[in-house]
Backbone:
């Protein structure tokens, strides 16, 4: 429970978002010459993990590093059972008002189908249009494979035991690196996710003495 008058999305002393937004951030990263983007493609469609610890990619042996950010139970064909997740239905609404609510995010813990409303122009005001605002209502729901998206790991003893079994299987593949909410089955906010990715890069690819980002 947090009680206070800080109306920001988080209460961290230093906060920020990409200057041109997250969409442009990812567009910039994907524009690299060494990146080939394949949309609507499941990892299982292009990766084959062999019992001897080798990996095939697109039908051929692959000796490079595979950085996997998807669901680990899915990658291994659910051999230890499905890991439980919570999903969210996200409904967007654009309204012809300059501002809808007093804070960037307002929670609705009781007597509502949705849990919170986020008004994006209060998070990224430099791109905000006058006289119009876009809201996001989040409706919690159970995760159903093939029907919606897994967002939040459900931390139970049984789930941890199953994930540990998958993580042990993953250790067989020396060139397979796991990172992110789904692959590591843990909760990350965006700043933590970025830091984890940078730390993984430093550990796996950068010289040992390089501690800068």
Residues:
């Amino acid at each position: 429970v947090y009680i206070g008058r800080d109306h920001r999305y988080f209460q961290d002393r230093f906060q920020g978002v990409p200057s041109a937004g997250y969409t442009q951030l990812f567009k910039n990263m994907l524009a690299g010459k060494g990146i080939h983007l394949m949309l609507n493609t499941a990892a299982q469609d292009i990766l084959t993990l062999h019992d001897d610890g080798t990996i095939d990619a697109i039908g051929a042996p692959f000796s490079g590093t595979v950085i996997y950010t998807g669901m680990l139970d899915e990658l291994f064909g659910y051999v230890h059972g499905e890991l439980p997740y919570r999903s969210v239905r996200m409904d967007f609404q654009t309204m012809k008002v300059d501002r809808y609510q007093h804070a960037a995010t307002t929670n609705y813990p009781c007597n509502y189908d949705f849990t919170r409303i986020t008004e994006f122009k209060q998070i990224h005001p430099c791109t905000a249009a006058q006289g119009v605002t876009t809201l996001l209502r989040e409706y919690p729901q159970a995760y159903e494979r093939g029907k919606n998206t897994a967002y939040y790991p459900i931390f139970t003893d049984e789930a941890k035991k199953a994930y540990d079994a998958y993580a042990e299987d993953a250790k067989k593949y020396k060139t397979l690196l796991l990172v992110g909410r789904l692959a590591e089955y843990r909760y990350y906010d965006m700043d933590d996710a970025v830091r984890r990715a940078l730390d993984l890069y430093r550990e796996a690819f950068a010289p040992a003495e390089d501690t800068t980002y």
